[in-house]
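Re: that chain you flagged

S.,

Sorry for the slow reply, it's been a week of failed gels. I finally had a moment to sit down with the sequence you sent. For the record, here it is as I used it:
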Amino acid sequence: MKKLLALLIVAISTTAFADYTFVIPQKPGGGTSQWAQIIAEQLEPFLGEKIVLLHQPGARDIPGFNNWHNDMRDDDKVVMVSHGGNGVAFLQENVDYNYDEYTSIGLMNLNIIAGKRIGADMDYPKFAAGSGQTPEAWAMAMLICGPTDDHREMVFYAACFKEHVTWVSGMSGSERRLAFKRGELTGTRENPAAYKKHVGGDDKAEVWFHHGILQADGSHADDINHPGFQMEILYEEMWGVKPEGEFYNAYKLVKSFRDGMQKALWVNKGNPNAFALQNALTAMSQDADAVKAIQKKVGQYDWLIGADGDAHRDTLMSFITKDALQDLVWFNTRALGLASVYKEELLK
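Prediction finished late last night. Pasting the structure tokens below so you have them in one place:
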């Protein structure tokens, strides 16, 4: 009996004090991997336990999230680190994961910044496709082509996009960055940390546009790190009207899921460690030294933690309509050549 009790104590202790594992659905060096390393380093002192980063790469960064959903989410010490590509895939691919089934530990309410080569003709940009990059195609189509009275709005933007944009498929992130630096591509996109690292210091590059920061009321605000370059602001300056219509609604859906879910921490509902993780994240987000270290590498962006993260997810879900989903699949299939599927089950 004493031996059994001792073994039980050891088992409980091992479970209680085991390292946390953060699952990252891509290989080391990717944007989400870099962000997770920054956050884990700052979070550990407030959590009081070590954080191990587990990379699970795969096609379009989907397998890692699926693996966590199917095999790891019941482990109370395993946290999922999702990103914007996962959000886009959730809308238009047959994935196993479902954000409604999780509790938000927290997320950074981030943005994506598109850069361009100084002096390049951005009426005819050269741009590389990649995981989570479809919102840039939609934004380019609107900025370049402007408003239309054509009742076949989707057809108009697809045709205009194909005429104006050289959309390069098959490049890795490192290949895309090198091609942009050489001038072989005239446009690029990065998350805030990667933009600082790869584009911000390039004296031959400048900001082209960004997508804005999602607000609690469903609107998007300008990014104080790159003021004046929000797509909606530039569109109105160029064309004299605010963007609207079915194409814009589908763009808002896909950009919101991609940017709004860009860097988020999840656990399974009912996870007993959720409160401790949320408290540690709150403490980190309010610590001057931690904030300074994060902002140096990422920029100034707000944290949405716990219930605020859940509410953010719910706002995103409210953008899903039948028309927006159908238009998303139509344009991504016809103009971008993606294997998108219409997921009627997302409608509520």
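What I noticed first: The chain is about 45% helix and 15% strand.

Talk soon,
D.
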